[in-house]
Amino acid sequence: MSKDNITPGIVDKAIALISPRAALSRMQSREALTLYGFDGARHTNQRKMVTDRDARNDSRHEIDRVQLMREARDVEDNFPIAGFINRKYASHVAPTGYQCATGDDALNKKVENFLNEEWFPHCDFYGRFNFFELAHFAVTSTNRDGDHGWNHIASPDLLQLQPIEADLLGNPDHNSVSQDYVSGIQLDEHGRPALYKLYRRVLPGGGYTFDTDVEPINFIHFLDPRRVVDYRGVTRLASAITSVKDLRETLDAVRMQAKKHASITSVVTGSNGFETGAGDYDAFKQAGADGGTRFYESFGVGKTYYTNDGE
After folding, report:
1. HEC profile for the chain?
2. Phi and psi (nearest 5°) for 152?
3. Whether the Cβ atoms of residue 115 and residue 98 lie closer than 8 Å to each other
4. Residues 148 and 177 sit within 8 Å (Cβ to Cβ)
5. pLDDT tens, per residue, the chain with 311 residues
6. How far, in Å, CA of 265 to CA of 260, rounded?
7. Which of 135, 200, 303, 304 could form a disulfide with 94 if both were Cys (CB 3.0 to 4.6 A apart)?
8. Greatest pairwise CA separation for the chain in angstroms
9. Which residues contact 304 (CB under 8 A, 6 or more apart)?
10. Are 146 and 223 in contact (CB under 8 A)?
């Protein structure tokens, strides 16, 4: 048992005075709630004990999956390194162009003209992005949220793609699991996806409302399952989310210290008296040969610069 759950609370002690067996059962049941999830979804650095039961798609697992998705979004929004790495990864993985290679030059030209001029620029159901931008979002969203989807919508003119973020597949506020349903995916009698249940966000105020059911033939589900029994994906940050948050807190503390010291030097004595800088680095400037002013932060990396007296 983890330290947090093995320590009896006031209620546990009161129950133990009357029935030690009931108190023990209560503590064991509370501990069981933490046996099947992810450590990164907990607000503690305690690791849970390894269980001999395999409950991969139970409610505890799905609740943790949603919590990790929210944690990963927060990390990407507020920890620049995580956001940069995810976008850089997508820039190397997502396609940026298309070249047809059927072996027939005339056919290649027709296909490329149609895709590049007609479909790629207009395939987004919401009319905001082209195909390659949607592909970039699919990669970053799958890494961050755990999975992503494209719903095929046949318009009068051409087939369009409706991007579905992870929290819109099933209602994350009411995660439920049964023999034939796992977090937005309806299963048939053999455990195969039969319907994808899509939701829309309620604006303003938040929350979710049911939108439509989509058959698997009309839905592309992007996910990187860790096991073959997984129906929903988990963020790639799941195993390191606690460490990433700890690192972010450390870097934030270092940044605050750097700003504190930079503010002290924002007013320095120059050759013409006091010069007040508008920002943390404005004090560190140098007059160029052309009479202009250069700032140290714009100088090259790996070089050493020497200043004159009073600068």
Report:
1. CCHHHHCCCHHHHHHHHHCHHHHHHHHHHHHHCCCCCCHHHCCCCCCCCCCCCCCCCCHHHHHHHHHHHHHHHHHHHHCHHHHHHHHHHHHHHCCCCCCCCCCCHHHHHHHHHHHHHHHHHHCECCCCCCHHHHHHHHHHHHHHHCEEEEEEEECCCCEEEEEEEHHHECCHHHCCEECCEECCEEECCCCCEEEEEEEEECCCCCCEEEEEEECHHHEEEEECCCCCCCCCCCCCCCCCHHHHHHHHHHHHHHHHHHHHHHHHCCEEEECCEEEECCCCCCCCEEECCCCCEEEHHHCCCCCCCCCCCCC
2. -80, 125
3. yes
4. no
5. 444 445 666 666 666 677 777 666 666 555 544 444 555 555 555 555 555 555 667 778 888 889 999 999 998 888 888 889 999 999 999 999 999 999 999 999 999 999 999 999 999 999 999 999 999 999 999 999 999 999 999 888 889 999 999 999 999 988 778 889 999 999 999 999 999 999 999 988 788 999 999 999 999 999 988 888 899 999 998 877 766 656 666 666 666 766 655 554 444 444 444 444 444 444 445 555 666 655 544 444 455 556 666 65
6. 9
7. 135
8. 88
9. none
10. yes
Residue identified by tokens 């030690």 is 20
Contact (Cβ atoms closer than 8 angstroms) between residue 237 and residue 144: yes
Residue 295 is which amino acid?
A: F
Strands 293-295 and 285-287: antiparallel
The closest of 234, 130, 134 to 183, measured between CA atoms, is 234
- Compute the chain's Rg from CA coordinates: 28
Whole-prediction pTM? 0.64
